Every structure is written in C-alpha cells, then in structure tokens.
Amino acid sequence: MGNRLDEFRAYRARMNERISEIGHRDINRFFSLDSAAYRDGALDARTKELLGLVASTVLRCNDCIDYHLDQCVKLGWSDAELYDALNVALVVGGSIVIPHLRHAIETIDLLRAEQSPPASVAESD
C-alpha cells in the first residue's frame, strides 16, 4: 500500500475518468478551462502552478494543495520557494490556514522522499 499521495493520485485519476465518462458538456468544458488556465501564457505554467498552490491554500483545499505541490515539485520549485509562497498564503488567509500549512509541509516532505533514491542494502557473502 502506498502513502496518502499515491492514494490521492489514484483516486483523482479514477474519478476524473469517471466524470469524463458522464459526457456532460459543461462539466467537460470546465475541466478543459481549468487545464488551459495553467498553460503558458503571459505567465509561464511554472508560475501559474505556484499561484494555484497559494490560492488553494487560502481556500483550504487539501486535494488542491496536493495537486499543485505535485506539479510545483515536478516543475522545479525549491523548498525555500514553496515555503515562501505558503507564507504568502498564510498571511492572506490567516490562522485558519495553519492546518492546511501543516498538510502542505507534510506533502512536500512526501514528494521529496519520492525523489530520494532508496538506500541500497549491502549484499553479504
């Protein structure tokens, strides 16, 4: 069994596929609009993901925090940059954001652990 990020990713993929199967035009349009919002434009996709992280933290959506942190780490944001962005979210959102800040820091730790190669076990003769 994987960690909570693995479970989140699997659930998100499964439910997005299920929603797509419904075939509702306006729901599909919204999903398309959401995807398009994070593409390069006047702001690059990398910056937009960081903005998505801040907005998601202020709005207190842990699923969204996990998604945007996953993207931000893939796009090369450093921990120091992520912490700085999360500080902006904390200042804007206030103390009610603190539980979501805890969640975000745990998520960053999980994402960084995925990037670290597992320690190899020395073979004995």
Number of strands: 0
Helix proportion range: over 70%
Helix/strand order: HHHHHH
Cα-atom radius of gyration: 17 Å
Organism: Thermalbibacter longus
InterPro entries: AhpD-like, AhpD_core, CMD-like
Domain Carboxymuconolactone decarboxylase-like: 30-105
Pfam family, one: CMD
What descriptive keywords fit this protein?
mainly alpha
What does this structure look like?
The chain is mainly α and 125 residues long. It has helices spanning 4-22, 25-37, 45-58, 62-74, 79-93, 98-115. Helix 3 packs antiparallel against helix 4 (62-74) and helix 5 (79-93) packs antiparallel against helix 6. It starts with a helix and ends in a 10-residue tail after the last helix.
Short description:
The protein is an all-alpha fold and 125 residues long. The chain has six helices and no strands.
Sequence-ordered SSE layout with sheet pairings:
Layout: H1 4-22, H2 25-37, H3 45-58, H4 62-74, H5 79-93, H6 98-115
Helix pairs in contact: 3-4, 3-5, 4-6, 5-6
InterPro entries: AhpD-like, AhpD_core, CMD-like
Domain Carboxymuconolactone decarboxylase-like: 30-105
Protein name: Carboxymuconolactone decarboxylase family protein
